[in-house]
Amino acid sequence: MIELTGAGVRLGGRGIFGDVELRVDAGQFVAVLGPNGAGKSTLMRVIPGLVRLDTGSVAVLGRPPAQVRSAIGYLPQRHGFDPSTRIRGIDLVRLGLDGARWGIPVALTRTARERRRAETARVEEVIALVGATEYARRPIGELSGGEQQRLLIAQALVREPELLILDEPLDSLDLPNQAAVAGLLRRVCTTQHVSVLLVAHDVNPLLPYLDQVIYMAGGRARSGSADEVITSATLSDLYGAPIEVLQTQDGRLVVVGQPEAPHHHAPRHELVT
């Protein structure tokens, strides 16, 4: 699904990451972890071709990203909706299909009517898939953060992508909603055969569902299973400083000695990435 070879990016004269080797297979659920400024969001923009590599190569479905953008669903970082936002959830999802269209045709041909019926059915299908049918016709500004996120995921899925990229979709959600969204994305991988690539600050809500993690730090990246990557030896090598990874009795991972990042989005007792 995705293959990066010797990939490197410089922005504003500063090296973001370099020599990244990465492979993601079809139907995998992958978390991208690392401190702020490590290049996670930049990597998410490289894959759909929104940021160009300075060195190395990237292929999606065996082709340059620009040639397969229609097969990629991309959900950038969100900043929430104002409570006064009146657009309904169902209309937000439909924008994933026809956001570029303006107005309503004066007269619909039979083919156009059939297309619209098929589109309406697809919108209803993905809303049901993410479990949002009950509140999809309410204004998006009235919904909780978890409900809004489910509808945004539905919007990214409505064009039936083969790859779904989500930049910090769990940010600002409480722990129950983080776990619920993680479980939803695992079901998307399994039932829709979609590969999911997700940027996260805390891996713990995702651990039961992941096939692979990509950890970025110090301008480099390591990928593999969580057990292979989130280890004292691997993180110490990436950070260039002694790091200890501990596991609590309930299976949560705790990092000791992690260098301070410029900003924090989760408590220090969690695996802040």
Average pLDDT, all residues: 86
The CATH fourth-level homologous superfamily of the domain at 2-84 and 162-256: P-loop containing nucleotide triphosphate hydrolases
Give Rg in angstroms.
20 Å
| CATH-derived topology of the domain at 2-84 and 162-256 | Rossmann fold
Identify the overall geometry: globular
Structural class: alpha/beta
Largest sheet: 6 strands, mixed
Topology:
Layout: E1 2-11, E2 14-24, E3 29-33, H1 40-46, E4 55-60, E5 72-75, H2 89-98, H3 110-129, H4 145-157, E6 163-167, H5 175-192, E7 195-199, E8 212-217, E9 220-224, H6 226-229, H7 232-239, E10 244-247, E11 253-256
Parallel strand pairs: 3-7, 3-8, 5-6, 6-7
Antiparallel strand pairs: 1-2, 1-4, 8-9, 10-11
Helix pairs in contact: 2-3, 2-4, 3-4
